[in-house]
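Q: How would the structure tokens look for this protein?
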Amino acid sequence: MEPKRESGETGTLLPASGFSGAPLSDRATTLTLVLILAMVFLSYLDTLWFQFVHDDRFQIADNTWLRSWHYLPRYFTGDVWSFMHPSFPGNYYRPLFLLWFRLQYMAFGLKPWGWHLCTVLTHVGVTVLVYYLSVRLLKDRRAALFATLIFGLHPVHVEAVAWISGVTESILAFLVISSFLCYLNGRTEHSHGRAYLAASLVLYVLAMLAKETALVLPMIIFASELIWSGHAGAFSWRAWLHRGLAALGVVTPYLVLSGVYLGLRIRALHGFQNPRESHPFSHMVLTWPSVLWFYVRHLIWPVGLGPFYDMDYVTHADIRNVLLPALAVVLIAVGLSLLAIRSQKAALATLWLVIPILPVLNLRVFVAGHFTHDRYLYLPSVGFAMLVGMGLCRLQIGWAKLLGQPAMQVALAAVLALALGTRITEETAYFANSNAFFTRASSMSASSEGAKLNLASMLGDQGHLEEAIKLYQEVLPTLPDNPEINYNLGYAYYLSGKLPEADRYLSRTVEVEPNRANAFFYLGLTKLKMGDINAAAADVERAVTIRPDADHYHFALGVILKLQGNLPAALSEFQQEIDVDPNNISAREQAAEIEAAQAAGQKGSSVGSNITPGSSTAH
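A: Here is the predicted structure in token form.
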């Protein structure tokens, strides 16, 4: 059945009418949009001088999968962290995200400025699409420009734009919005309907491969179809059934592709999802009000932002954590419902606010204490920006005009741009480097376990190992079997030269998490320094088996085998190290030495045990 058009709906992206004031000309609209985009870019310009921080160091600097197209098939057969923990059951099937990083690695290597530039430009591109989406749904240029301004300069996007690894959100939004716009074009321009549908479906597939939350798109399309058909017929159950079946027919191709994607995901991750921790469903439900209220507050009043927020599961109903936030969320939901009933445009904007935020309620995929992040508001904020844009267009005091438009609105836009841009500049500062990042994270809740661990990580990076060890030891009694804490303690003791302590905690790590390659690696180096060469060989060999494409692993095993006098096996390991890292000069020297010795019929000389590779920390 052909979907019915809303009254006044056209195929153009730039309708001429507005709520108030003189209609914006094409030129004025274009100049204003360019100005907004320039302000967005300039607000994030300083990030081009930022470093790799937090996950960037692992996903970029230590990710061997980015160095060669040889690893491309692996992008589609595992979790994004499989390069580091190949046996760890993950939840992040994002091949396109890895491909995006691979292309940037080819272009910029390990120069952070290029990566940051691409991340900022992606956000600018999404901001452009938000304008076109707003025009199509709100049918008003002025409201669309307000929405674009608010979205592009909303400080809650700092995490997604100033942090390279947060680019998943903007890639997702770019593809989802593009797919929806193609769907809209196919809905109105029937002569090219099939081409637009094909483009929409292709973009939807790419969106799912970028991030799993793209699965909300069919829900948005289905609900949009119901809204557009709501004026036809009586509001009886038969009418709703008819509309629902018609909407279902529209989204069926998207649902089929969703099924294919889920099959690939389940095969790659060995399950639909792998919960990080076990918590009763009731605890998750009790935590929802606090989580939703957190996101509402950060949309409305984005101050005091940070990379981490200390929020844990709510285990019993109380006033502060359940009843009050639930009441606030319900009141907002009622208000949005009433607004949506009165205005079809508001209803469409509300869809983009509510539906994209639903995936964050699946708290089980997150580590306790880390299931709220500002970046998860990136796509939902599109709907928020449209609602606010509509509201701002209703504000008009007096009849004064400025640039042919209501002076009140022009002045408000200027104030918003200045205030939001300034706020972005302040909030991006804590992503400048690791010290700023972890200092900010610790200051958010200095007494919490998470804050202590963040501070310990920062101190360890700075070489203040004793202070880091002290903090880890303070937290360990409450989490004695946590593999991260045990590994970081063992690694810190290893760097400090306290080998018995390093052996103790690294051994505990591999007991708790027997497929942790880096723990076996440093456990082997610890035993090597303690003089137990055979045990060292077994542990490092185990690390190589788990993660055969890791830097330094083959080199370390080669050195150990050389100490044991097994030169052919040592040579093989050095050659494999060269395959992993062609720039490893030490591996080439060792291989050349053994080859020369073999050619001369001599036994290769021994080497010392100082084979510690570059810094490697846990994730």
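The first strand starts at residue 401 and ends at 402.

The radius of gyration is 28 Å.

Upvote if useful.
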